[in-house]
Design a protein that fits this description.
The chain has 8 helices and 8 strands. By secondary structure, the protein is of the alpha/beta class. 32% of the residues lie in helices and 21% in strands. The chain starts with 8 loop residues before the first strand and ends in a 9-residue tail after the last helix. The protein has an 8-stranded mixed beta sheet with strand order 3-1-2-4-5-6-7-8. Strand 5, helix 3 and strand 6 form a beta-alpha-beta unit. It has one domain: Alpha-Beta Barrel (TIM Barrel), CATH 3.20.20.
Length: 252
């Protein structure tokens, strides 16, 4: 078995040492390489490929984290991507070692590779995961397949799995005008979220066009140039529908 398969090394896209939007407090954010969803609106197009970018061991990541640990007293480490769970062995080992140092761990995922048969592997990961940021792209499966290269069935099943194990979760939803922003859609998403009891927060993230330059830099055509950034009033309206009177789970 290779070091990669044993989880001893991870394929890293990049590191942000002062993340303020990726979990509680100031975060050390590790972006892993590779993503199966391949969203049309992706703002990190260069994370899709599984080609080797920068290889790091768990020890190297934590050594780097500890250089800045005085910033992270109320924060911790967040692993994102790409899709972090494409590298489950590395992710699990990293979080396990992080918890030995009392580091708060947060997983940012779209759950694109989750399946029922992998539950034992996810059970092990969740032992060392304090918080999950779950990205839901679209609640309708057919439209999800158009927007990404994956169905949403495994994503919604992962949300239910997190609810079953009572893992604190923040739902994140990127709001795209004309795609997932009308009232009928938003009430449908709210209905799904109402069936979960482990949600500690919900973020409506306005779609932005800053990532288009990455597509162009790679010589690629951006798939949805006609979609504009949402008006702040639309974002506020979506937040009202999704969050009003919702009974968020209390931490602690």
């Amino acid at each position: 078995m290779s070091k990669y398969n044993r989880g001893e090394i991870g394929n890293v896209h990049s590191i942000e040492t002062f993340g303020a939007f990726d979990g509680p407090g100031i975060r050390y954010v590790l972006f892993l390489q590779g993503c199966p969803l391949q969203c049309k609106f992706c703002h990190n197009r260069d994370t899709w490929s599984l080609d080797t970018n920068k290889l790091m061991t768990v020890e190297e990541v934590l050594e780097d984290f500890n250089k800045y640990k005085h910033f992270y007293k109320k924060g911790g480490i967040t692993v994102s991507g790409g899709e972090a769970t494409l590298q489950l062995p590395f992710l699990t080992k990293l979080f396990k070692e992080a918890k030995k140092q009392n580091i708060h761990t947060c997983l940012d995922t779209s759950a694109g590779v989750y399946s029922e048969k992998m539950k034992p592997v996810y059970d092990e990961l969740m032992k060392y995961t304090d918080l999950v940021l779950l990205d839901i792209k679209h609640i309708d499966n057919e439209k999800h397949l158009w927007l990404t290269k994956s169905p949403n069935t495994q994503i919604l099943e992962f949300a239910k799995y997190l609810d079953e194990i009572k893992k604190p979760t923040i739902i994140r939803h990127i709001l795209l005008p004309e795609i997932n922003s009308d009232d009928k859609y938003l009430y449908g998403l709210r209905e799904f979220i109402d069936g979960l009891s482990n949600i500690v927060g919900l973020d409506v993230l306005p779609y932005h066009t800053k990532g288009i330059m990455k597509w162009e830099k790679m010589g690629l055509v951006y798939p949805i140039p006609e979609i504009k950034e949402p008006d702040p009033k639309l974002v506020k309206h979506a937040e009202t529908i999704l969050k009003k009177d919702y009974n968020f789970m209390k931490l602690g």
